[in-house]
Write a structure and sequence with these properties.
Length: about 375
């Protein structure tokens, strides 16, 4: 259950010596200030056997980067109007992550969270920093799976079209034009989460990515934990002349895609003696191969072709369809290579440069 402002303030009142040497002496809720500003609380903190200070506190039950930045800007507006004051701007939340902490540090705002972390600075009199404790309130975290499965296609679409999109429908149409089925509501929810995490810029006329490299890193994190990836089934076969499966048969090409180091070889980034491909349905693939008189035999130990069966939408999104050896797109291959140690990350670095250069040249 997500904490309310009342829950957070109650915890703060009962914090005891948990945040020693910082203690709460007095706390007054919902205080109106001059210039028409209102704060959730005015709190008098003190240092044990030391100085005290008064904080204007904003409570953030949902402490996404967007919400924290919004409150930071409100503080900046108030203090610009109020002029010189001894009161300290202060944020209280269930948990403050690294990105949020940086937003507050850059703006000189102190904070404390109910997970045991804090950063308090009062001119040259007081400085306390305690970080690194994990989030004890996971319900306050943003959606964790927006970088996995169908939801990840939104971020991938944003990277593929660096000049941005004019609307949610524009993003939706871009994705569905490239094979996978996705609900418009899913696209809308993912965009909202990306906005809350400050990973996209969004106004009335444009949705765009300010930091493509950061978004690419988020996709890697999601890929590593992806349940779709973990569900894949892999088989090894001996196949006589793999080229017979695709040469001149475009329709059949769309039933499989080169992946892994084999795809990297086709893209001019690696050399390998193994053929690795994705298929949607292993039995259907075998039947089509046999219809074309291609010999395909299960061979766990010495098979020259490794086939992975998957319906993962990321695999089949934006593929490079060729008459021979159709290949996964650069982003899918980059994700694969990032977790294929020890050789994969070196190839991933080349793909990353290529992806980002393409974005820069299109921007």
């Amino acid at each position: 259950m997500r904490l309310t402002e009342k829950d957070i303030l109650r915890s703060l009142k009962n914090m005891g010596d948990r945040y020693a040497p910082l203690v709460v002496k007095r706390l007054k809720e919902e205080v109106s200030l001059p210039e028409g500003y209102r704060v959730d609380a005015v709190i008098e903190f003190s240092i044990q056997d030391g100085p005290s200070f008064e904080a204007l506190a904003e409570i953030a039950p949902v402490s996404t980067p967007e919400n924290v930045l919004k409150r930071a800007r409100q503080f900046a507006d108030y203090f610009a109007k109020a002029g010189k004051t001894n009161r300290v701007p202060f944020i209280v939340a269930p948990y403050i992550g690294a990105k949020q902490a940086k937003i507050l540090a850059d703006r000189g705002i102190s904070w404390i969270d109910l997970s045991g972390n804090m950063s308090v600075r009062v001119s040259n009199r007081i400085y306390i920093e305690r970080t690194g404790k994990p989030n004890q309130f996971p319900d306050t975290s943003p959606i964790k799976k927006i970088f996995q499965g169908t939801s990840s296609l939104v971020s991938r679409a944003l990277l593929l079209k660096p000049d941005g999109f004019i609307s949610v429908n524009d993003v939706y149409n871009f994705i569905t034009d490239r094979n996978p089925k996705v609900a418009l509501s899913t696209v809308s929810k993912v965009l909202k989460s990306l906005e809350e995490e400050l990973l996209i810029n969004r106004n009335k006329s444009l949705i765009s990515v300010p930091d493509p490299e950061m978004l690419l890193e988020k996709l890697v994190e999601g890929y590593k934990n992806s349940t779709e990836r973990k569900r894949r089934k892999t088989y090894r076969f001996s196949i006589g002349n793999i080229q017979q499966l695709s040469a001149g048969v475009v329709g059949f090409c769309k039933d499989y895609l080169a992946c892994g180091f084999y795809a990297a070889q086709i893209k001019g980034l690696a050399v390998t003696d193994k053929i690795t491909i994705f298929v949607k349905d292993i039995e259907q693939f075998r039947r089509k191969a046999e219809d074309r008189l291609v010999s395909i035999t299960a061979d766990v130990e010495f098979g020259n072709v490794i086939i992975t069966e998957t319906s993962d939408t990321g695999v089949w999104f934006n593929p490079d369809w060729r008459e021979i050896d159709s290949v996964v797109d650069d982003i899918e291959l980059y994700l694969e290579m990032m977790i294929d140690a020890p050789r994969g990350p070196k190839i991933a670095e080349q793909l990353k440069r290529r992806i980002l250069q393409r974005i820069e040249s299109s921007g």
